[in-house]
Design goal:
415 residues; alpha+beta
């Protein structure tokens, strides 16, 4: 290892080129790894996401103020039914309109179906008339737990909504986690729905009709039964559609509604492929430079072979050298992510913004990336240099180097 560090120190230009190339590639690998993981986790944010369905028709959510009661009373296969309506008009707090204009009106069943972390208070605190929860972000801007018990004043005009007591304040009863990484819009206020009457049409862009089915329920006959109950109760002739929560984010279902977040799965695939080719190209570049400069260490490598160093020992040593170099490059890349994350978010305009995370599961992924790259580079370099003799060049190493150059050229052409 000491000889490797001395070699890097004597060849500063080579070291810089290799470090910069690998670090730049790793910067985007880190950013898009976080992007991919966070996008794929959206549908699984809540437990039992494979048993929760949104109800819709003609590609959008479908609901009526009577619909949830009809389903709950007539469909025994359902474990839970939740309705919600989104108001675009912002509530006022301390005389000023909240920065986020979206407010969700629902009841406490929402928090039973979509298990939400409470920062302050309990789910039961949402039961009383005119109660409301605010998100952690809203609370941090307004004094955190000191906000409990304060008033929220709803706007006098509620869009398609109508109230019995327009303008009567809601009381903040608890603080919940943000909706940032969920399927729902980033509303900061959740207000009690039970004290409202709805004038919503049978279809609307702000409707949230969800059902949770019992385990083992056959979805196809359930859909037919839901459609019959819906049509019989509302005198309609409509075939309802169901989409599972864990598939909803990337599906075509709900493309017409603003009540849920949507992402283009094809775009996600394209970016994943681009980052993959970028990383592979960087790895081959690292291998090429390592093999090309290996002849400068030919005497050292040859002596090691003469004194009896085994091929396995050479592979291990080159792996450790690659691991050290990759770890340093990865640390540089992590520091550089803050410079590109905002730009990538602006480019993607994703409903779930990218954030580089240092949680345990992310750290384990980072370690896996480092070890994988180090293993690939270490094995490839050792294969190209393990047969060096004290006073001869390595034709096999040159052949492998040329092969890596051809592969890198192909990858660069594809990109």
């Amino acid at each position: 290892m000491k000889s490797y560090l001395r070699f890097l120190g004597r060849n500063k230009v080579y070291t810089a080129i290799m470090a910069v190339g690998l670090s730049v590639a790793l910067t985007f690998v880190i950013v898009f790894t976080c992007y991919l993981k966070q996008q794929l986790e959206v549908g699984y944010h809540y437990p039992d996401s494979d048993r929760i369905f949104i109800v819709g028709m003609e590609g959008t959510a479908a609901s009526n103020s009577r619909m949830w009661t009809m389903f709950a009373e007539n469909i025994p296969e359902l474990e839970g039914v939740v309705g919600g309506e989104i108001s675009i008009g912002g509530m006022k707090y301390n005389g000023e309109t909240a920065s986020n204009q979206l407010t969700l009106y629902t009841n406490s069943d929402f928090f039973k179906m979509f298990q939400t972390r409470m920062v302050a208070g309990n789910i039961e605190d949402f039961e009383p008339k005119r109660s409301a929860f605010v998100t952690e972000s809203f609370a941090r801007r307004n004094g955190m737990e000191e906000i409990i018990g304060k008033q929220l004043i709803p706007p006098s005009q509620m869009g398609w909504l109508a109230t019995d007591d327009e303008g009567e304040p809601y009381i903040i009863a608890g603080i919940i986690e943000d909706f940032t990484n969920t399927i729902f819009p980033d509303f900061e206020i959740v207000a009690n729905f039970d004290e409202r009457k709805s004038s919503v049409s049978l279809q609307g862009n702000g409707i949230l009709p969800f059902i949770k089915v019992k385990e083992g329920t056959d979805i196809e006959p359930l859909t037919e039964k839901l459609s019959k109950v819906y049509n019989d109760g509302l005198n309609r002739k409509i075939t309802l559609q169901l989409e599972r929560l864990d598939r909803l984010y990337f599906s075509d279902f709900g493309a017409k509604t603003t009540a849920i977040k949507k992402e283009n799965g094809d775009r996600l695939t394209i970016f994943v492929l681009v980052v993959f080719f970028l990383l592979v190209s960087a790895i081959f570049n690292y291998i090429n430079l390592s093999v090309a400069n290996a002849e400068r260490r030919a005497k050292e490598l040859g002596i090691r072979r003469v004194v009896g160093e085994s091929r396995g020992r050479i592979v291990l040593r080159t792996f450790i050298e690659s691991l050290a170099f990759t770890t340093v490059s990865f640390a540089i890349a992590l520091a550089a992510t803050s410079l590109v994350t905002d730009w990538v978010n602006y480019l993607l305009q994703s409903p779930i913004p990218i954030s580089v995370s240092y949680k345990l599961d992310y750290i384990l992924i980072y370690i896996l990336i480092i070890v994988t790259i180090a293993a690939i580079c270490g094995i490839a370099v050792s294969a190209a240099t393990s047969d060096y003799k004290v006073r001869s060049s390595n034709t096999g190493g040159r052949t492998l180097s040329r092969l890596f150059i051809v592969i890198q050229f192909i990858l660069s052409f594809i990109m």
